């Protein structure tokens, strides 16, 4: 991926660090949202003509990583990378409203939609005959059943009568890109959470003593931390590979679906190992509300199952293997890595 200006990355981190010092995760969203808006970070990838900052996915990824690293839960990805991008893709006005996006089923229903109760408008997608349509809908016009994921973030059920919506026809390549974007967004966020868990585990093992020695001196603890580091690195490498292919091909690479599936599968399985091992390293203290480990473990476990479960992405990879055969799959792997 493109190298992002170090000062920009530092500024992003400083904003979230300062917010987290004063507020618990999920608190004062409006406050930090206004601050990010003033800094031009709410619509980081939006075109300048539509009021955005004109940055790219490389910068957006660093913003998501910074938020996840500091445990700040805010709908930046849903707003900028999904909802507002969809509006720009079909030429609709964006404005200043906070948004999220969802794909409705044949009954006009979507379950577990992120951040609806905190959004002013929802960009909805639905199948209409042979194609898809998109509409920007006032949240007040939707039937919303509030819910939460395991990390305590809003994940709401939405229903709407699509016959009352006009909507704009959506090209097939846009709906395909929406699903890829959404899947990679969660992979990026999980990786950031896993990296923070690794850092916390290394710090704890180095500072905590048992039987007169730091935990880091015990081989069993070393093995646990080494596995956390290895799984985190694998997840990040797979995700960065998919992102590089997406950005380099403007989301049109024929290998992208495969790489997204690889990233999501690796991330999903890594989360299991990292969270399990981290709790073993931290011992009983890691299970308490007072310790911050849960602020990263629970989001990692929640995010890995959104926009496709771990089982779903494993099945996608299994289908690739069956369709391509041994020689074909190897060719796909090597071509995707070029």
From TrEMBL:
Residues 181-300 form the Acyl-CoA dehydrogenase/oxidase C-terminal domain. Residues 16-91 form the Acyl-CoA dehydrogenase/oxidase N-terminal domain. Its cofactor is FAD. Keywords: FAD, Flavoprotein, Oxidoreductase. One of its GO terms (molecular function) is flavin adenine dinucleotide binding. SUPFAM superfamilies: Acyl-CoA dehydrogenase C-terminal domain-like, Acyl-CoA dehydrogenase NM domain-like. Coiled coil: none annotated. InterPro entries: AcylCo_DH-like_C, AcylCo_DH/oxidase_C, AcylCoA_DH/ox_N, AcylCoA_DH/ox_N_sf, AcylCoA_DH/oxidase_NM_dom_sf. The keyword tRNA processing does not apply. It holds the Pfam family Acyl-CoA_dh_N. Belongs to the acyl-CoA dehydrogenase family. This is Acyl-CoA dehydrogenase. It comes from Mycolicibacterium alvei.
């Amino acid at each position: 991926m493109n190298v992002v200006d170090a000062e920009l990355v530092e500024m992003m981190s400083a904003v979230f660090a300062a917010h987290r010092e004063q507020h618990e995760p999920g608190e004062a969203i409006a406050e930090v949202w206004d601050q990010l808006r003033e800094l031009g970070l709410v619509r980081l990838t939006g075109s300048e003509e539509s009021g955005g900052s004109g940055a790219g996915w490389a910068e957006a990824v660093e913003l998501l990583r910074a938020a996840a690293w500091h445990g700040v839960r805010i709908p930046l990805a849903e707003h900028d990378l999904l909802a507002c991008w969809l509006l720009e893709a079909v030429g609709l006005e964006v404005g200043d409203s906070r948004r999220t996006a969802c794909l409705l089923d044949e009954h006009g229903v979507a379950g577990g939609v992120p951040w609806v109760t905190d959004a002013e408008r929802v960009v909805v997608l639905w199948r209409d005959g042979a194609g898809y349509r998109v509409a920007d809908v006032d949240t007040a016009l939707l039937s919303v059943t509030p819910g939460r994921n395991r990390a305590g973030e809003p994940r709401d059920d939405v229903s709407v009568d699509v016959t009352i919506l006009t909507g704009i026809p959506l090209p097939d390549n846009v709906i395909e890109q929406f699903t890829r974007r959404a899947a990679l967004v969660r992979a990026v966020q999980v990786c950031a959470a896993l990296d923070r868990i690794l850092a916390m585990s290394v710090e704890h093992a180095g500072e905590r003593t048992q039987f007169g020695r730091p935990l880091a001196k015990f081989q069993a603890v070393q093995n646990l931390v080494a596995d956390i580091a290895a799984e985190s690195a694998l997840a990040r490498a797979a995700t960065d590979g998919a992102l590089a292919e997406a950005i380099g091909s403007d989301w049109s690479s024929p290998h992208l679906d495969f790489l997204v599936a690889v990233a999501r599968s690796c991330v999903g399985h890594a989360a299991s190992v990292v969270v399990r091992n981290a709790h073993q390293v931290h011992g009983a203290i890691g299970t308490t509300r007072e310790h911050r480990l849960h602020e990263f473990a629970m989001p990692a476990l929640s995010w890995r199952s959104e926009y496709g479960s771990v089982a779903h992405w494993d099945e996608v990879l299994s289908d690739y293997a069956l369709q391509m055969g041994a020689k074909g799959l190897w060719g796909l792997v090597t071509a995707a890595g070029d």
